[in-house]
UniProtKB/TrEMBL annotation:
Belongs to the CUT homeobox family. Residues 37-96 form a coiled coil. It is found in: Nucleus. InterPro entries: CUT_dom, HD, Homeobox_CS, Homeodomain-like_sf, Lambda_DNA-bd_dom_sf. The keyword Coiled coil applies. This is DNA-binding protein SATB.
Length: 697
DNA sequence: TTATAGTCAATACA
DNA sequence: TGTATTGACTATAA
């Protein structure tokens, strides 16, 4: 039987002590509980704070997300608008092929009816400013078409017919006002007339009134810049159609407008035109349309060359005024020349693949004639597609680009089928020879030609390796060898330049005397050295040139005899020279002054240039050209000063800046040959001009 | 848009 | 007469 503890406590003095201990234990446990509670309270509080913080965070995140979503929605809306706008534009431009055809037809018409075209197919000019007046008429008609005007601009508009001849057909795009800009003005004005806004007779009077006022040229320039930027109109187009100036000039005028008072009446004209342009929203929109149309046409025609490259055939670069059809026709023309060449060679044993090409090209030519016929007779469609089967070469169902691609594909296909081992290289070179058929100085030789030259060079050396990237020539050695060969065989730079490089004598001289290192040459610059390299490798090089040289001499001699009898057919040089601008020849002191200025400021600001020009009595263009050329020749010679004007130390000199600037050679163009004092005075004037500008700044 | 490379024609020079 | 220089310009690269 177990003892009851309580009973034991009551029955002894120990239980009292136990009770006290028990109380103590109880108190301790209570304390612990209290601590635990307070700790939990703190935890709860902390958690509550954490919850609040997280709630705040959540709220912030929600707000931010909402904002972001709103922003994205806005952007999406904007993009959608853009897409819609672009789709609309695309839609509105879908008829450009048709318009282009119309444009071409009209151009042909105007050329037939008017003088011969100003721009020939092979002429090199590449800027819009060279577009003939005839094209302006076409553009005007085109604009009528775009603007939904049924009536074309009357050719006998009293304003146009009443204009002075020089305004109707400006001899130079840079002369003012150009016929193009006049045409546009007439057009815009005629447009206005039709809306009943302005009378036709106000034009000239308006100009007179404006001329008497004073304009803030900087503000006009700024506004024009903004307008062009907003409407995405290029300076080239603006310059051509509105100002009758080149892009470079427009850029210059807009970047550095001269104060109105400093402008001559001629210099003010662009600003007057700009002012009128700005005040006429209609003309701005018209120009925007012209710009867009030109871009579309350029894109389309650039496409052709891309296709040719894609097909493995190196195209020559088309002058901008040449249409895609003309490009095709040109290819065919060149091919015909090739075939004539083939004909002569076939007598000595022909190449089967060339016959294949000949057939294809004949067919292509036939297609082109048909294409041309169909294009002109689109409405009537006199030839039904099913009447003739042309396989894949049907221009009526293909764009010009696709058409050319088809020809190329077919040629390649035929070549591949030809089992003749030499077919491919021969065929490729046959096509490539078309490039060589072009005159070297026609301005058509570009990167494509460079590649051809490279390929041919590499073929000469290592038929398998056509690594154009790693091609590197020793320009110094090449020029040295060429010089030796020319001297040894008494061949002139003129003949060498014309026959081998397609350059003038002066350019040959410069190339031979100052060859740039290969790495510093541009693609075009390298081309010359590759040609020289090839010439050096040609075993018959000297023989060929000697013959040509002899023929040229004979021709010159006979010409001289002819001239001696007082008759020279087609010689208008006298009349031509009468209108030529004389070459500017800077005198010694002017050069000294410019060199001194260069020492202080190799890249002078426009303001400095103007100051220098004014101090020296020169045109600003002359000063600015001098700096360009001087910097260029310093770079070329790799010296502190160009070779031809290198100077020596002159102990007698006293001028602080020009003391070392005494030319080695005498300046024959300096008649009075000033003494040192006068020259130093001139130089110090220039130096002062530069330093005073610096101080002002 | 600007700076530079390449080129030409006129001119100078040997 | 052939070559070198140079002012001016265009095309192109940056």
């Amino acid at each position: 039987m177990k003892n009851n503890p309580r009973q034991q406590c009551k029955s002894s003095p120990i239980p009292k002590e136990n009770r006290r201990l028990g109380n103590l234990v109880h108190q301790i446990s209570d304390g612990r509980e209290m601590m635990m509670f307070s700790s939990r309270d703190r935890d709860i509080q902390r958690l509550e704070e954490e919850v609040q913080r997280l709630q705040r965070l959540l709220q912030e995140v929600q707000e931010r997300t909402a904002n972001h979503i709103a922003l994205l929605q806005q952007q999406l809306a904007n993009k959608s608008q853009d897409i819609e706008r672009l789709q609309d534009e695309l839609q509105s431009q879908q008829d450009y092929e048709k318009i282009k055809t119309e444009l071409r037809t009209l151009r042909a018409l105007t050329q037939t009816a008017d003088d011969p075209p100003v721009v020939s197919v092979c002429s090199p000019p590449s800027d819009v400013s060279s577009v003939s007046v005839d094209n302006d008429h076409v553009i005007q008609r085109e604009l009528h078409h775009f603007l939904g005007k049924e009536e074309p601009l009357s050719e006998s508009c009293p304003d146009i017919s009443g204009l002075p001849v020089e305004n109707r057909r400006s001899p130079s795009p840079s002369s003012s006002p150009s016929s193009s800009s006049v045409s546009l003005h007439m057009f815009i004005k005629a447009e206005k007339d039709s809306d009943g806004d302005i009378s036709c007779a106000v034009e000239s009077d308006g100009f007179m009134d404006e001329d008497e006022r004073e304009f803030d040229t900087a503000r006009i320039a700024q506004q024009v810049k903004e307008a062009l930027q907003q409407q995405n109109i290029g300076q080239r187009v603006f310059g051509h159609y509105v100002l009758g100036l080149s892009q470079g000039t427009v850029s210059d005028i807009l970047a550095r407008p001269k104060p109105w008072r400093k402008l001559t009446s001629r210099g003010r004209e662009p600003f007057l035109r700009m002012k009128r342009f700005l005040s006429d929203e209609h003309s701005i929109q018209t120009l925007r349309i012209i710009q867009e149309r030109l871009r579309v046409l350029e894109l389309h025609e650039a496409d052709l060359c891309v296709c040719l490259v894609a097909e493995g055939i190196v195209p020559w670069v088309r002058p901008p005024e040449m249409s895609s059809d003309e490009v095709i026709r040109n290819i065919l023309d060149q091919s015909r020349l090739e075939l004539m060449d083939v004909d002569s060679r076939s007598l000595r044993g022909g190449d089967a693949s060339e016959d294949v090409i000949r057939n294809i090209l004949h067919q292509a030519e036939h297609e082109m004639q048909l294409h041309s016929h169909v294009t002109n007779e689109t409405a009537r469609d006199t030839v039904k597609p099913e009447e003739v089967d042309y396989g894949t070469l049907n221009p009526r169902v293909q764009s010009p680009t696709d058409f050319v691609q088809s020809i190329i594909r077919k040629v390649k296909c035929e070549i591949d089928e030809d089992t003749h081992p030499s077919a491919s290289p021969a065929s490729l070179s046959s096509v490539n020879r078309s490039l060589r058929a072009l005159p070297v100085d026609s301005g058509l030789r570009t990167q494509a030609d460079f590649q051809l030259v490279c390929v041919e060079s590499c073929e000469d050396e290592s038929p398998s390796g056509l690594d154009l990237q790693s091609l590197e020539l020793d320009t110094g050695s090449i020029t040295q060898r060429v010089k030796e060969a020319l001297t040894l065989n008494n061949i002139g730079q003129r003949v060498f330049g014309e026959e081998v490089l397609g350059l003038t004598q002066s350019s040959v001289s410069e190339l031979l005397s100052h060859p740039k290192p290969w790495t510093k040459l541009s693609l075009k610059g390298k081309e010359n050295f590759i040609r020289m390299h090839r010439w050096l490798q040609d075993p018959h090089n000297v023989q060929r040139l000697t013959k040509i040289d002899q023929r040229a001499r004979l021709k010159r001699d006979s010409q001289r005899t002819f001239d001696g009898h007082g008759f020279c057919p087609g010689d208008h040089s006298g009349a031509f020279e009468a209108v030529k601008r004389p070459r500017v020849v800077l005198s010694a002191h002017e050069k000294d002054a410019l060199r001194a200025a260069y020492q202080l400021e190799p890249y002078p600001s426009q303001y400095t240039i103007e100051r220098l020009a004014s101090q020296l009595g020169l045109q600003t263009n002359t000063v600015s050209n001098w700096f360009y050329n001087y910097r260029s020749r310093i770079r070329r010679d790799g010296l502190t000063e160009p070779l031809q004007t290198r100077t020596v130390q002159s102990p007698a000199s006293t001028s602080p800046v020009s003391s070392s600037l005494v030319p080695i050679k005498r300046e024959p163009s300096d008649p009075e040959m000033e003494d040192d004092t006068q020259r130093h005075a001139r130089v110090s004037v220039a130096v002062q001009a530069v330093t005073s500008v610096k101080t002002e700044l």
